[in-house]
């Protein structure tokens, strides 16, 4: 007899706030209300386009019938380009480079090859919700560490020290950070390295926004500061090269081979088990990384203008404050409310403005935030923040 199908318990706590808010947004859109999407970190949804030379390289590869399976770790022409890019950032002692279906697959493979049920990894909070979704999926214990808003969202080293325990296997660093747009300074990176040495931790360096730096800020790759500590540096084409739909990412494993060799083979086992990443799209990698990257000038100029608009608008809303983003294309304002999830849902229903509540990224208890992207055009940002300011004034009198 057929009965109700019960899903696996591992899915019970999997959430993804960035996408989950769209369910409500779709309902609001059906009412005919004008919509203002400040939620999705997809530049191609707005007025950004993938550089044409990247598209042409893929088109040529397909016409040349490069449409079969690829090597499980990635084609040599592509991994060599990644190696050159890593070397330019100062990363040394590299033992493997592997190409995946987006950086998210690389991160999931590397975490699942390292952390057992009941063990944990240190996760920046606020941080990208992919990591907490993987944590829930594989039965890993939660172990968030806080970024210090009062210090420009730098990782809180003392908090990290207090969170390390006998079951901690790795520390994740998102730099530049999603959702805050902060950039970790070199001194902080060096302190994280010292903790990794002391406690035998693998460092996961998520650097997928490392070329999207505002106001001539610099971002140092943590792997460039030490060639002995086991590290995996993640990146891809999604953000820097405006191609999130390509789903092309990679990992660069560096450090002392004696410490890494068993883990490296475990990662390779999982890479072989999923066959390969998309073959023809790998031809975009050398075109992107070895090219002149001329598109970045316009992209960064747009982001700086739009970041400045957001800063100006927020400065005129009493009760909402923002640490200026230094990189990537996000902002994470604090807001004086009792429940940011409640505020964001009500804001969406009443105004059509879609932002993501801070609870979806993690935040210190008692603090409240929301995340926006600074990708929309200037007129959209103007209109959206007029609605946010007006609605917030109303909200404070009602709730």
What this model shows, in words?
The chain is 39% helix and 16% strand. It has helices at 17-29, 52-63, 76-88, 102-112, 130-137, 157-163, 186-199, 257-273, 284-290, 295-315, 340-351, 378-398; strands at residues 36-37, 94-101, 120-125, 144-148, 154-155, 168-174, 202-206, 231-236, 248-254, 320-321, 330-331, 334-335, 353-354, 356-357, 370-373. The chain starts with 16 loop residues before the first helix and ends with a helix. The model has no long low-confidence stretch (mean pLDDT 96).
Amino- and carboxy-terminal Cα gap: 50 Å
Structurally, how many domains make up the residues? 2
How many strands appear in the DSSP assignment?
15
The main pleated sheet reads as: 8 strands, mixed
What is the helix tally?
12
User: What is CATH's topology name of the largest domain?
Assistant: Aspartate Aminotransferase, domain 2
Low-confidence stretches: none
Strand percentage lies at 15-25%
Cα radius of gyration in angstroms: 21 Å
Q: Element order, helices and strands?
A: HEHHEHEHEEHEHEEEHHHEEEHEEEH
Average pLDDT taken over every residue: 96
| Strand-pairing-aware structural class | alpha/beta
Q: Which CATH architecture of the largest domain is right?
A: 3-Layer(aba) Sandwich
User: Which percent bin holds the helix content?
Assistant: 25-40%
CATH homologous superfamily designation of the largest domain: Type I PLP-dependent aspartate aminotransferase-like (Major domain)
| Name of the CATH first level of the largest domain | Alpha Beta
Envelope shape: globular
Strand order across the biggest sheet? Answer: 2-9-8-7-6-3-4-5
């Amino acid at each position: 007899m057929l009965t109700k199908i019960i899903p696996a318990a591992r899915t019970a706590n999997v959430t993804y706030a960035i996408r989950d808010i769209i369910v409500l947004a779709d309902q609001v859109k059906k009412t005919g209300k004008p919509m203002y999407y400040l939620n999705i970190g997809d530049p191609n949804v707005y007025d950004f386009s993938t550089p044409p030379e990247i598209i042409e390289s893929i088109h040529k590869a397909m016409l040349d019938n490069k449409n079969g399976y690829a090597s499980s770790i990635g084609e040599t022409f592509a991994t060599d380009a990644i190696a050159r890019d890593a070397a330019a950032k100062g990363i040394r002692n590299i033992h493997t480079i592997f190409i995946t279906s987006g950086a998210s697959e690389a991160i999931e493979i590397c975490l699942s090859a390292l952390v057992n049920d009941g063990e944990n990894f240190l996760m920046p909070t606020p941080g990208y919700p992919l990591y907490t979704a993987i944590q829930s999926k594989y039965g890993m214990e939660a172990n968030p560490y806080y970024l210090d808003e009062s210090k420009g969202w730098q990782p809180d080293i003392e908090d990290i020290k207090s969170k390390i325990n006998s079951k901690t296997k790795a520390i994740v660093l998102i730099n530049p950070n999603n959702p805050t747009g902060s950039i970790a300074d070199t001194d902080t990176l060096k302190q994280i390295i010292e903790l990794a040495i002391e406690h035998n931790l693998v460092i996961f360096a998520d650097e997928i926004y490392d070329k999207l730096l505002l106001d001539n800020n610099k971002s140092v790759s943590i792997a460039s500061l030490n060639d002995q500590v086991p590290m995996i540096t993640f990146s891809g084409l999604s953000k820097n090269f405006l191609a999130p739909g390509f789903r092309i990412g990679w990992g660069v494993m560096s450090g002392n081979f004696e410490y890494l060799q068993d883990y490296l083979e475990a990662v390779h086992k999982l890479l072989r088990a999923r066959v390969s990443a998309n073959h023809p799209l790998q031809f975009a990698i050398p075109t992107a990384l070895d090219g002149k990257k001329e598109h970045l000038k316009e992209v960064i100029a747009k982001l700086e203008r739009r970041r400045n608009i957001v800063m100006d608008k927020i400065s005129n809303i009493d009760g909402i404050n923002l640490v200026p983003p230094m990189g990537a294309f996000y902002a994470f304002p604090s807001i004086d409310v009792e429940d940011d999830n409640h505020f964001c849902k009500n804001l969406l229903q009443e105004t059509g403005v879609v932002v993501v509540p801070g609870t979806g990224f993690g935040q210190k208890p008692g603090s409240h935030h929301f995340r926006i992207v600074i990708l929309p055009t200037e007129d959209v940002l103007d209109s959206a923040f007029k609605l946010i300011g007006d609605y917030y004034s109303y909200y404070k009198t009602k709730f």
